Amino acid sequence: MAVNKMEKMTIIAAAEKEEAILQAIQGMQAIEIKDFFHSSVDSSYIEKHFSATLVEGDETQKKQFQTMLTEIQESLTFIERFSENTSKKKSFKRQIRTLSSLEKDFDVFKINRYLKEITSLKNRLTKIETIRKDLLSKENWLARWQYLDIIPKKSVLESSNILLGSINSANRMDFLSDLKKVSSIYVEEIYHSQNHVYYSLIYLKDQSSDVDEITARYSFNQFDYPYDILPKEAYQQNKEAIAALVMEEKQLKNDLTSYRDHLEELYLAEEMTYAYIHREDAKKHLLNTSYFFIMQGWIPIEEKRELATVLEDALPKDEVYISFDTPSADEIREDIPVKLKNNSIVAPFEMLTEMYSLPKYDEIDPTPIMTPFYMVFFGMMVADIGYGLLMLVGAFLALKLMVLPRGMKRFADFFLILSFPTIIWGFIYGSFFGAALPKILFGVQLPFPILSTTEDVNTILILSVIFGFIQLLTGLMVNGIELTKRKRYLDSIGESFAWQGLLIGILIVVLGMLLFQNDGLVTAGIIVAVISALSIVIVPIIQTKSKVKGLAKGLYGLYGLTGYIGDLVSYTRLMALGISGGSIAAAFNMLVAFMPPAARFTVGILLIIALHALNLFLSLLSAYVHGARLQYVEFFGKFYTGGGRAFKPLKTEEKYMNIEKKSKVKE
């Protein structure tokens, strides 16, 4: 499997059929719309003969949908936040739908009515909140003056004044002492807080200057009482008003609760509104006239039959013209998008390739070649039967019991597949949640562990390097084959086959000296290595006009051997991470085993679950990251360039549901 083959699609139809065709294409979620005026099509004929009927893009409809989307999202947030959660209605579950069924169920008038009613409730609650804040503020200062037993407005005399206010508690004694010096003044302490004292002063008007001087000296904060009733009565009325607001707010929230029954409709409306917005965006890429429109796009070749089917369902066959063209060399180089196509085992690993860079349209897809290596490496780094079973069960249940978003589903498939090599390597290392497998079971001698993480460390280290060596040779082989296909024969020798020969020659020398102790094998290895090294040096000399520069380039290229040594060393992390994860799990088991029996079977159970959950998370994260790093740095660098543009079909947002083609969904 490789990069999906694409063709350029052109559709011409009457202007009034535009919406139906776009809806059908969006439901397929498999066609990328091209910008007509930035494509390779010569549009001069249309501009010359139909310039008077060309229609400019109109953003009005899109803005209406965007406004509606905002209102829906705000209403959903408002309902979920403020409504009384007394409804026993089950939460909304992700669904699999077709776009046509979703659009059929979308009642714009009903949704607008819901939005209008919810907005009204929202405005009333906002108003209540504002009034309540004001009443709470008034309650705060009325509580301090409620013991005042007169109504200042009704107690004013011709010869006296009433002054209400507060001072800092630290100045209380000095303030009272100075007031005693004023004859015929009545002072009453109304309220005493931690920092302030509140007073009522009654004095003769001809003593105003003396009182003003004292109050100014102590920063007396004057208070004007606004009510025509006693403070205690005003305080009580204020509390009653707050209580009434609380009851009204509760009633509004109860009214709002009824809209929880319509949450599913609002979720579907939000999904559909997103679809309309994406569709309106696509219209900007079409050529529109008063009579017809022209659409161009990229379509995978296996989707052509599906496209014909959905268009026949949308409108009569004789009302639409459609053609398909093979992409030109310029389009392949500059414009064509890339969509990967692999079987169900390899497809989840495409996300690793996408994280690095998609291949160019005419480049090999590295995913199928990378997948078996990544599976072996991941399993070798986690290497525990128990952890693998948790991955298997968790991913399997998630896939079977839930409709997952596409990205999460791919992750679930990814870890479901990786659980198998994890379990296999767990048997090889003889590890089950960090505990060693039994040597004898039911009288049967078991062969586990095949490799011990404590006694066979050197063997595991050598095995890690061997796996790395195989992957490097595979990368060089792929590079050589690809260069040969492009008829770059000398490059295939100098950049691939010669390096393979050099590495294999060195391997033969090492095996002949250390393992077989065979001089003939050593000699053969030296001959292969020397011939390969000479090829690496000679090829640049042949390719370069200046032989001196070619020689220098060849010798510098041969220096790259040190890079291969560094690459092989990188693969030792397979041994390090596999042993470290198992050792940490075993240490956790020992920690709980040392606990007293009473603690071991109470707190110890919770502790061991938490510790193994942490180790599982760290092991999976390390294996995921370091496994990807080995592919990106050591493997991809040998043959893969990337730089492809991702395929972006006209589709829906899929925020709350997965949209599938009609052929895949039973309605």
Automatic annotation (TrEMBL):
<dbReference type="GO" id="GO:0016471">
    <property type="term" value="C:vacuolar proton-transporting V-type ATPase complex"/>
</dbReference>
<dbReference type="GO" id="GO:0051117">
    <property type="term" value="F:ATPase binding"/>
</dbReference>
<dbReference type="Pfam" id="PF01496">
    <property type="entry name" value="V_ATPase_I"/>
</dbReference>
<comment type="similarity">
    <text>Belongs to the V-ATPase 116 kDa subunit family.</text>
</comment>
<feature type="transmembrane region" description="Helical">
    <location>
        <begin position="522"/>
        <end position="542"/>
    </location>
</feature>
<feature type="transmembrane region" description="Helical">
    <location>
        <begin position="601"/>
        <end position="625"/>
    </location>
</feature>
<keyword id="KW-0406">Ion transport</keyword>
<protein>
    <submittedName>
        <fullName>V/A-type H+/Na+-transporting ATPase subunit I</fullName>
    </submittedName>
</protein>
<feature type="transmembrane region" description="Helical">
    <location>
        <begin position="373"/>
        <end position="399"/>
    </location>
</feature>
<keyword id="KW-0812">Transmembrane</keyword>
<dbReference type="GO" id="GO:0033179">
    <property type="term" value="C:proton-transporting V-type ATPase, V0 domain"/>
</dbReference>
<dbReference type="GO" id="GO:0007035">
    <property type="term" value="P:vacuolar acidification"/>
</dbReference>
<feature type="transmembrane region" description="Helical">
    <location>
        <begin position="497"/>
        <end position="516"/>
    </location>
</feature>
<keyword id="KW-0472">Membrane</keyword>
<keyword id="KW-1133">Transmembrane helix</keyword>
<feature type="transmembrane region" description="Helical">
    <location>
        <begin position="411"/>
        <end position="437"/>
    </location>
</feature>
<feature type="transmembrane region" description="Helical">
    <location>
        <begin position="457"/>
        <end position="476"/>
    </location>
</feature>
<dbReference type="GO" id="GO:0046961">
    <property type="term" value="F:proton-transporting ATPase activity, rotational mechanism"/>
</dbReference>
<dbReference type="InterPro" id="IPR002490">
    <property type="entry name" value="V-ATPase_116kDa_su"/>
</dbReference>
<keyword id="KW-0813">Transport</keyword>
